[in-house]
Specification:
By secondary structure, the protein is of the alpha+beta class. It is built from four helices and six strands. The N terminus is likely disordered.
């Protein structure tokens, strides 16, 4: 699901998220046919929807689950009157650096935060 330590050189930040609280707060969505094959965590933050994590198990790749979760995030943002979705990814996640622009996101910055080399993206809705 989240990036591996091998890819970014340390334990990825999503691995330390408090998912029990995020689930209780209604911020996590799961996709799969009877099994949790993909998930997304997002919530409103100011004038935008903040996409904290989106991941698909490797064996479920190519089934459209990630796209369905991203579409759901966009629909939620629009329903809440939010004008954008914002996210960041680790610079070592090179597939993401190609994927997000393909999905309509624009890179808005890059900086090291908490020791992570992060690339920031936004999609205007």
């Amino acid at each position: 699901m989240p990036a591996t330590s091998r890819e970014i050189g340390r334990r990825p930040a999503p691995m330390d998220a408090d998912y029990a609280t995020l689930i209780a707060d209604g911020c996590v969505w799961v996709a799969g046919d009877g099994a949790a094959l993909a998930y997304a965590a997002f919530w409103p933050l100011g004038d935008h929807l903040y996409l904290d994590a989106i991941a698909v198990l490797p064996e479920a790749a190519g089934q459209g689950l990630g796209r369905a979760l991203m579409d759901h995030a966009e629909a939620e943002a629009r329903a809440q009157g939010l004008g954008a979705i914002r996210l960041y990814t680790n610079a070592a996640m090179t597939e993401n650096l190609t994927l997000y622009p393909y999905l309509g996101f624009t890179q808005t910055g890059r900086r090291v935060t908490d020791g992570f080399d992060r690339v920031y993206f936004e999609k205007r809705l």
